[in-house]
Please model this.
Amino acid sequence: MEGFTSFIESLNNTINNFVWGVPMLVMLVGTGILMTILTNFFQVRNLTHWWGSTIGKVFTDKEVTEHTASHDKQITQFQSLCTALAATIGTGNIAGVSAAIISGGPGAIFWMWIVAFFGMMTNFSENVLGIFYRRRNENNEWSGGAMYYLRDGLGSYPGCKVLGIVLATLFSCFCVLASFGIGNMSQINSIATNMKNAFSIPPIVTGILLMVFAALVIVGGLKRIASVTEKLVPFMAIAYVLGALIIVILHIGNIIPAFALIFKGAFAMKAATGGIIGSGVKMAVQWGMKRGVFSNEAGLGSSVMVHSSSNVKEPVVQGMWGIFEVFADTLVVCTLTALAIMCSGLVDLTTGEVLTSAASTALVAEAFSTVFGTFGAKFIAIAILLFAFSTVLGWSQYGTKAFEYLFGTKAIKVYQIIFVAFIVIGATMDLSLAWELSDTFNGLMAIPNLIGVLCLSPTVIKIVNNYIARVFHKEDIRPMYSVFEDVQRAQEQA
Model:
């Protein structure tokens, strides 16, 4: 058994090094750069528009937040954002940031920002394609995601039908496997470990309670998941952001040195003492990009499966929610986590050296404890509970949609029951290998998805240009999505 485990670990390390190696990171960021250029820097040039069309409408436009009728299987635009954020705002925003600082130096945060800036347009493109190629399933629910724009988009190109089907199937298989790892057991294990350390709650108790709560939500379907996440996500995000802000404000004199250290560390500049800040450019870039992608998931094709269930008709509108998702996850939450660690005195603001042996969530807990005392560690344990559990809820929907694509709507309940049962396993087992396998399957999802986004980039540009012509220039032309809907109906009738 030990020999088999060693073989799996060795094989996984080989695959993981390939999946998360420099070529893959270049492909992830490169896709974002390409889409940024092709859309004429949409996230910058139209900042006020996408901000006003997303979070700016939450308090002014009922269409964004008003729930659909009980028989309607769609969810609101705000619910789709919260469910997507539920899956992305997780341990990556806490443990991932601390890992980036420890392994890549403070400069890794700069490269997380770079990944987020260009990742905005990758996520935007995924959501545009997700809405454009989505379908109604047998239960009259929207089904969308990389598997559909790979099969129906890429597959519509001459000679690419088989390729589209194969890539769609591979993406769905990787997504199902990743949902049990990064979307379930790994998250639950983090919760159980932190609850045991902070409150002395046995892991089995945590596992059983979370299994019951998850079952009540997940088996109820997307609308119940969305109903929970739209209440949970704003609460947990605001509470965590306020806590981090308090730490930063109370150490306000360290803010400018902290930012200076991030920029110097990003390019391995010399400190006043003569030593090199951080761990060098290569490590800063690799860890910043890797943890950045892990945090916001732009390029993995995951959150598009929830965004595609929105009641929106306009693909570009849902694409703009994707931009805001990456902005909130990385540029806000991850940045505040990094500043809380650095400003609290746990990092030498001259050399970038971490001045404590604490790692992962313990590093963030120690930063919070410098201001909140013993409550700081408990606060982080609760934050991990909310963040990680919401990630489980979001990923359950990703896995459900991938499983539905592979086996049909009638098999969904089977997946959901197995998914819920694995929660107890995640709470009680040593999951060091599971964490490594999770990273691998998570990364493998990106390969077919990015192929789809790159190959279908002309379609994204046509949709964007059509939207700009109608909304910005008031041209009297038919929406491109409306034309495509007519084609879909004709195909279904035929």
